[in-house]
Design goal:
The protein is α+β, with helices and mostly antiparallel strands. The chain has two domains: about 50 residues, Winged helix-like DNA-binding domain superfamily/Winged helix DNA-binding domain (Arc Repressor Mutant, subunit A, Orthogonal Bundle); about 80 residues, Lrp/AsnC effector binding domain/regulation of amino acid metabolism (RAM) domain (Alpha-Beta Plaits). It has six helices and four strands. β2 and β3 form a beta hairpin. α1 packs antiparallel against α6.
C-alpha cells in the first residue's frame, strides 16, 4: 500500500477539482517544484492510484434514466455467474458493475433514454439469465450529490491521529 504524504494529498485534491491543472499551478499551490510535482504524478500513475480518465455525464447525451439495480442471485453455478459477469461487463448500457456484501450480491447501474429503453435492457438481462435472480430491485437516480470525491488531505491526517 502506497504511503501518501500531505503534499501528495494536496496534489490529488487539486487534480480532483481541476484535472487539467498545470504542473506550474500545482507546484505553486503545493510549494513544490515543477519537477517534483511531475515525479509524484508519474509515481501516482505508475502505482495506479490515479487513472487518466474522463467522466461522462450520461444525461447530457440523452440517457435521462440512470438506474441502480440491486441483484440477489440463487441456484447458481460458477459458470453461469461468470457468464453473467462477462455479459454485464460487455453491455453498453451497464456503466457500473460491482459485487457487494450485505443483503445483495451485485449492483449494476443502467443508463437508458426512456422507461421503454430501460425495460428492453432489463428484459434482455432477465431472459438471458432466467433462473439466476432471486431478487431484483431498481431505483432511479434523481440527483447526484457526491461521486468519487475524496479529500485526501483529511484522509491522510485522519490516519495519523
Amino acid at each position: 500500500m502506497p504511503i501518501l504524504d500531505e503534499k501528495t494529498g494536496k496534489i490529488l485534491n487539486i487534480l480532483q477539482k481541476n484535472c487539467r491543472a498545470s504542473l506550474t499551478a500545482i507546484a505553486q499551490e503545493t510549494g513544490l517544484t515543477v519537477d517534483v510535482v511531475k515525479k509524484r504524478l508519474e509515481r501516482l500513475l505508475e502505482e495506479k492510484i490515479i487513472l487518466p480518465k474522463i467522466h461522462i455525464r450520461p444525461r447530457t447525451l440523452g440517457f435521462t434514466h440512470v438506474i441502480d439495480v440491486k441483484i440477489k442471485i440463487k441456484n447458481y453455478d460458477q459458470e453461469t455467474v461468470d457468464q453473467f459477469i462477462d455479459y454485464c461487463k460487455g453491455h453498453p448500457r451497464i456503466t457500473e458493475f460491482f459485487a457487494i456484501s450485505g443483503n445483495w450480491d451485485y449492483t449494476i447501474v443502467i443508463i437508458a433514454k426512456s422507461h421503454e429503453d430501460l425495460g428492453k435492457t432489463t428484459r434482455a438481462i432477465k431472459t438471458t439469465f432466467p433462473n439466476l435472480f432471486s431478487e431484483w430491485a431498481e431505483s432511479l437516480t434523481t440527483k447526484g450529490y457526491k461521486f468519487e470525491d475524496y479529500d485526501i488531505e483529511k484522509l491522510i491526517n485522519e490516519e495519523q491521529e
